[in-house]
Amino acid sequence: MQGSANLNVMIKAARKAGRSLVKDFREVENLQVSMKGAGDFVSKADIAAEQIIRDELMEARPNYGWLAEEGGEAEGKDPTRRWIVDPLDGTTNFLHGLPHWAISIALEHKGEIVAGVVFDAAKDEMFYAEKGEGAWLNQSRLRVSGRSRLIECIFATGLPFGGRADLPETLQDLARILPSCAGVRRFGSAALDLAYVAAGRYDGYWERNLNAWDIAAGLLIVREAGGLVSPIEGDSILDSGSIVAGNEPIFEKFDRLVSNN
Ligand code: 2AM
Ligand code: CA
After folding, report:
1. Which of this chain's residues are annotated to bind Mg(2+) (predicted)?
2. Which of 6, 10, 13, 110 could form a disulfide with 56 if both were Cys (CB 3.0 to 4.6 A apart)?
3. CB under 8 Å to 3, separation ≥6 — which residues?
4. What is the dihedral of CA 97, 99, 101, 103, to 10 degrees?
5. Residue 253 near residue 228, CB atoms below 8 Å
6. Residue 84 has pLDDT above 90, yes or no
7. Whose Cα sits closest to atom 11 in ligand 1?
8. Is the minimum distance from the CB of 162 to ligand 1 under 6 angstroms?
9. Helix crossing, 167-177 with 248-259: angle to 10°?
10. Distances from the Cα of 166 to the Cαs of 116, 185, 210, 231, 233, in angstroms?
């Protein structure tokens, strides 16, 4: 795909931050003896990656706004456009030396996501999409899976960590969903969960209590791969931080199962 200038800027920023994170990821293994040391090191790696992305994007598009996990929110001179960035999604995996984490960069225009990049730097998998242009993994076009029977489907989700209050709700979700499908996976990166739905590796994904930067890029990649996405609560995915995503044949059934109605 011949991406737009904006998409090329996003991909370039993701690759540059990816090189920095891959270097730091190799270091993490040597630091495992001291968890505190490793934790501080990973926060620094995360902040450094965000700075690289911010420098690249702001140099290319100085008028756009900014929303990111580490650096907060800033309105741009152009109030209709902003970058939504997670420099390191799957931080806990990164810290544990698990090669399953990603950089997520989305471009929002007038409240709608128009371009998204999710880069798994450890595996060199660049997932990207632009509105109306399809979804891609490296050089290949992506398409969601075609499975139409829930019982054959694998769904991804996130499980509450560190005392998060939605544990009872999540356990009820699992009790409802596990018997109806072929399996549930919890890999720990919301951005990659969505990219994997787009790639047909998962048939669907659901999670609550996320931040906009976890899912902004991934939701467009799913849509452009022919999948459907919708909020679990409320009427905006990004405002509610809740999302159900899936291939078209199972979406209605899956959405009802997740929403329990
Ligand atoms: P993060 O790695 O950028 O923090 C997975 O359920 C999602 O929850 C991830 O996208 C992850 O984003 C977020 N998350 C935040 N804190 C987490 C934690 N302590 N453990 C697992 N996931 C966490
Ligand atoms: Ca995240």
Report:
1. 69, 86, 88-89, 214
2. 13
3. 11, 128, 130, 133
4. 110
5. no
6. yes
7. 90
8. yes
9. 130
10. 28, 18, 12, 16, 13
Q: For residue 117, what are the CA distances in angstroms to 108, 184, 244, 261? A: 12, 25, 19, 33
Residue whose C-alpha is closest to residue 256's, from 151, 193, 176: 176
Pick the CATH number of 150-259 from 3.10.620.30, 3.40.50.880, 3.40.50.720, 3.40.190.80: 3.40.190.80
Q: Does ligand 1 come within 6 angstroms of the Cβ of 189?
A: yes
Distances (CA, A) of 149 to 42, 102, 249: 41, 30, 8
What sign has the CA pseudo-torsion 207, 175, 227, 141?
positive
Half-sphere exposure of 69 (CA within 13 A, CB side): 24
User: What is the reported pTM?
Assistant: 0.96
> pLDDT-based confidence at 33, cuts 50/70/90?
low
Centre of ligand 1 to C-alpha 189, Å, is 7
Token digits for 219? 């939701």
Among 242, 165, 239, CA closest to 206? 242
The number of the ligand 1 atom at minimal distance from the alpha carbon of 101 is 2
Is residue 65 scored above 70 in pLDDT?
yes
